[in-house]
Amino acid sequence: QVQLVESGGGLVQTGGSLRLSCAASGPTGSTYAMAWFRQAPRKDREFIAAITWSGGFRNYEDSVKGRFTIARGNVENTVYLQMSGLKPEDTAVYFCGASYSGAYSVPTSYNYWGQGTQVTVSS
């Protein structure tokens, strides 16, 4: 069973930056890609960015292009989401997901999820 643990969330002002981390453990060699999603209250889980473990492919949601960067960490089995230019509409719980199949943008493509980390952007 792959386990994912997110960290790095918090409260930040508009225009600020945060770096989220996702640490994966267990049989991660069976997974192909990792992604970040977010979910605001009363809204569906929304795709943010995905990356293959090889780092050769990255996929971003349009509203975060140029502001967010997904990357593999130097620490093994870690994926980061560097967020800058944060806006109040970025406020949500951010989840890390692991997929056996690919760096897709739909939640159903992901087989494992972390517990989430809260990001709050004040205006």
Give a summary of the structure in a few sentences.
With 123 residues, the chain is mostly beta strands.
Protein architecture, described:
- The chain has no helices and eleven strands.
- With 123 residues, it is mainly beta.
- A hairpin with a 6-residue loop joins strand 4 and strand 5 (46-52).
- The protein is globular.
- The mean pLDDT is 94.
What are the main properties of this structure?
globular, mainly beta, single chain, 0% helix, four-stranded antiparallel β-sheet, seven-stranded mixed β-sheet
Helices and strands, in order, run as: EEEEEEEEEEE
Distance between the termini: 40 Å
| Strand-pairing-aware structural class | mainly beta
- Which percent band covers the strand fraction? over 45%
Biggest sheet features = 7 strands, mixed
What's the pLDDT, averaged over the residues? 94
Tally of contiguous helical segments = 0
User: What value does the Rg take, in angstroms?
Assistant: 13 Å
Report the oligomer: single chain
Shape: globular
How many β-strands, per DSSP?
A: 11
Question: Uncertain regions: pLDDT < 50 for 5+ in a row?
Answer: none
Helix content: under 10%
Question: Helices, strands, pairings?
Answer:
Layout: E1 3-7, E2 10-13, E3 18-25, E4 33-39, E5 46-52, E6 58-60, E7 68-72, E8 78-83, E9 92-99, E10 112-113, E11 117-122
Parallel strand pairs: 2-11
Antiparallel strand pairs: 1-3, 3-8, 4-5, 4-9, 5-6, 7-8, 9-10, 9-11
